[in-house]
Amino acid sequence: MKKIILIGSGGAGKSTLARQLGAKLGLNVYHLDALFWQPNWVGLPRNEQIEIQNELVKNEAWIIDGNYGGTMDIRLHAADTIIFLDIHRAICVYRALKRMVKYRNQTRPDMGEGCEERIDLGFLKWIWNYPKEKRPEILKKLELLSNEKQIIILKSPRQIRGFLESLY
Fold it and tell me: What is the pTM assigned to this prediction?
């Protein structure tokens, strides 16, 4: 595990797990939200997102967390390990709400500078619909890559803790 990506719904725990893995494995961690959002929630154009990711994946070892479905294939093909946090949507919504309250009017550590946390009903709806709208496509992609990549699907906070504890 030297080139790891973490994908999953908002609120699944990607950024937290990325930081924990980075500390445990001694790998650099890149949060796509921090790289792709400019102040006041202005997103980078897709061509710049592609450019950034193409540069990141050239590195010898890394952990990258984030979804960004339109550019996910760059990371999927460069990674040796894909971790899909397939956490129940109720947990994800709860965590997103908790995060929105905790960091309200502040920029959280894994977010782009100047992007203050706020209550975002559209984001909560995206999380709620993730299992139906995004999950099936991700599972298909993972199935296609299962012979050449290490695929790890974690379905609960308990499985995530167990996974972390199993690492040296």
Answer: 0.94
